[in-house]
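May I ask for whichever protein you like with its backbone structure tokens?
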Amino acid sequence: MYVRTLAVMIDIDWSTGTWTTPPARVDVADDGMQVTAVEGSDAWRTTSYGFVHDTEHALLAPFGQDTAVEVSFRLDFTEQFDQAGVFVKVDDATWIKTGVERSDGVDSLGAVVTRGMSDWSLSPVPDWHGRVVTVRASRSGDALTVRARVDDEPWRLVRVAPLDPDAEVAAGPMCCSPSRGDLTVRFTSWRTGPADEGLHPDG
């Protein structure tokens, strides 16, 4: 999907954010940030599973109206529910996580939208493995629009979700490791810029 986005994206310094839950290890270098997740880390509220997990590793900074945030990472997941992407948080019961998650042996692009209770959508992307994935969350009006792509391929629309235009929101890179204790995600960039100009491509 073609989408008119920004003219220029600006890097966000890794030191700008605050972790919702500290990871087991964080290493920052010139080429990005490596994050090792704690075993059992996850974000979910109630639906189907009956539990509340709020131990995700999300590095958050303020996310204002009419702006977008992009997170890139190298996709090399191997275990059930390994995941990384973008976390957008209003409060403990109102948040969105979106990116790639390994589910039942397949890397899938998706989102969990939570407003008291979570929902979950996935679309398999097996050909993305071993490549750099970029997830883009764009805030405009009463909506959050999520797009993603691999390498320099066209953007794909992932989700359009309601987001209170007056809410104080924070967003940034996220990873979770519900099933193992040695997941390390290499984030290659965290950037911000103007929100996308429209939901659909021009004529």
Notes: The two ends are 12 Å apart (CA to CA).
